[in-house]
Amino acid sequence: MTVRVLLADDQALIRSGFRALLSTAPDLEVVGEASDGAQAVELVRATRADVVVMDIRMPGVDGIEATRRISADDDLAGVRVLVLTTFEDDEHVLDAVRAGASGFLGKSVEPQLLIDAIRTVAAGEALLSPRATRALLTRYLQPTQEPVAAPASLSALTDRERQLVALVAEGLSNDDIAGRLFLSPLTVKTHVNRAMMKLDARDRAQLVVIAYQSGLVRPPPS
Length: 222
Description:
Elements: E1 3-8, H1 12-22, E2 28-34, H2 37-47, E3 51-55, H3 63-72, E4 80-85, H4 92-99, E5 103-106, H5 111-122, H6 130-140, H7 151-155, H8 159-169, H9 174-181, H10 185-199, H11 204-213
Helix pairs in contact: 2-3, 3-4, 6-11, 8-10, 8-11, 9-10
């Protein structure tokens, strides 16, 4: 299956470089380029892209707001956003995840990793390893007074699902969780996917955000 990719960056040279790189992957097709967030939202509707490679800092509508608009549009429910940033520890990365991004990479990423990341995001999986995701979220995420997931939503989870969501938020992969709980990786994946559906989490990264902000798990003491 060919993954349709939209490139959103205000620098034409960067877009050109990404286009040339992605053209080397037979399963990836660049279907459009946007120079700002507003154009990205328009083009993703017009091209029906599967993945948007989104820069954070763009004039006018930035990448975070564009991600938020895409995530809020029911007609674009299947679109995944891969955010690129100059500094991977930038606090705006967390804002992007909260806005609905499926993951993030630094612009200095190795070419093959970018290609693999697009494939991973298109498949609905977490972009970064669970440990890397947790490292960033733990640095910036603080419990809020108003939970992201309402108590009624959390109560919809079974005890096993709550247990697995907490372990995902601790940075464990499906294989790690399977080994710890003596379950098969497929069983773990099934439970995690059901929890994501119940909590309306687009992907694993947002599941981690919900787990922290709902109070299901707490960041470790600094």
